[in-house]
Amino acid sequence: MNKKYAHKSGYTLLELIVSMSIITLLTGLFLANYHSSNRRTDVIMTAQTMVSDFRYAQANALGLIKYDGEVPAGGWGIFVTSDPQEYRKYIIFADENDDELYQDTESMTVLGGRTIELSPNINIESITVNGVAKAKAVITFLPPDPITRIKTDTGTGTVVEIKLKENVNNSTKTVRVNFLGLIEVID
């Protein structure tokens, strides 16, 4: 007579512990990478939004959009600053008196101006004009050519770079605007 031995199938306790450890490790790595990529996405999206807002101001100038009932003499523009008191926002305004500067009365929301607040973990880290660090810059678009003017407190320039920084992972993106009106995200 042949005896049939019943083989028990299943996992040993050691195999179960090793399997659970591997699953836990992979889940932890995935979650850490997921949160990190979300923060990088925040800075990318903020840079793309800033580019869209620059194009909005440019389109307002080219479309002769009125502010307070009149087409602004100096076109439409954006004011940016890396001042720690205000480095989490930028302002779309109408340059009513063509002085290439921003005044509070030129950005009233009911007339077409806008103040854009950045995400809580993103700020404007630096502004460079022609490679020189500046605290503030005003970029205006003047129709009909369009003419793009870049002005700081010490003069004018041909290219401005606005560096955005995400504060948790320190990831950055830079928005560049040149005198020809090209607006792009670099690096």
From TrEMBL:
Top-rank lineage group of the source organism: Bacteria
UniProt-listed Pfam families: N_methyl
SUPFAM superfamilies: Pili subunits (SSF54523)
TM spans (from-to): 12-32
Keyword vocabulary terms for this entry: Membrane, Transmembrane, Transmembrane helix
Protein name: General secretion pathway GspH domain-containing protein
